[in-house]
Amino acid sequence: xxxxxxxxxxxxxxxxxxxxxxxxxxxxxxxxxxxxxxxxxxxxxxxxxxxxxxxxxxxxxxxxxxxxxxxxxxxxxxxxxxxxxxxxxxxxxxxxxxxxxxxxxxxxxxxxxxxxxxxxxxxxxxxxxxxxxxxxxxxxxxxxxxxxxxxxxxxxxxxxxxxxxxxxxxxxxxxxxxxxxxxxxxxxxxxxxxxxxxxxxxxxxxxxxxxxxxxxxxxxxxxxxxxxxxxxxxxxxxxxxxxxxxxxxxxxxxxxxxxxxxxxxxxxxxxxxxxxxxxxxxxxxxxxxxxxxxxxxxx
Length: 299
Known about the structure:
Layout (H helix, E strand, L loop, with lengths): L37 E5 L6 E5 L4 E6 L2 E2 L1 H4 L2 E8 L2 E13 L2 E15 L2 E7 L9 E9 L14 E5 L5 E6 L9 E2 L5 E4 L5 E3 L6 H5 L3 E7 L1 E7 L2 E3 L14 E8 L4 H8 L7 E8 H6 L11
Parallel strand pairs: 10-13, 10-15, 11-14, 17-18
Antiparallel strand pairs: 1-2, 1-9, 2-3, 3-4, 3-5, 5-6, 6-7, 7-8, 8-9, 11-19, 12-13, 15-16, 18-19
């Protein structure tokens, strides 16, 4: 068992609803402001947060019956296209950031639109970490029968060692990393070593990760046999009465969900770029620790 800890934290206040999207695999769009007009909420579940884009360039956020307009003041948005990438710019009269109010706060994000679905992600801010992904999510437009195009991109296949439990750490876009293998139709295959640590030359794909366009395999008995892990992420709501508590599952925790200093300590070397964590464990651990099994002692 890998006995490293994975410190996962989510800011449940205003910063939870600030988003920006990954750039590498989802560019090529020139989104217009009118394309995102409407009311949006999280695609996987409606947690009460709603996001409104209006034709007059106004934007607002709400939580159930609470309208944040009084707290934020008037918020304006616009979309700028640069080099086949569409950037969403939000300008707040004031915003609550890290425990204090900041006047004239500007939030800049890249967005990717697929029909009535908007994939979004937040980037960390700071010297040397501006390209580090913080959080991602998928929003859906509020309407009957929302639509999205069929996915035609590549799906990463993660192959977990036989009998492995614990945290898998994957450092993407590493100049001296291992190149991926590929299946017959060009999908990349990442073979995770027994240590659970992998450095790969493959760039991260935040859009595919956020939309769960991937497979997680567990080796069984031989190099040529594998089974697909049932997987979920922090946005899923799971009916625990329909699953086996002792069966192994894969929990996709997201990118850079601990400090860079701890990531460097885990790899025993400086790691630049984005690091994805996948936790392999029994469902009863996820249930007992509310999806945070790495914060508690495991069997």
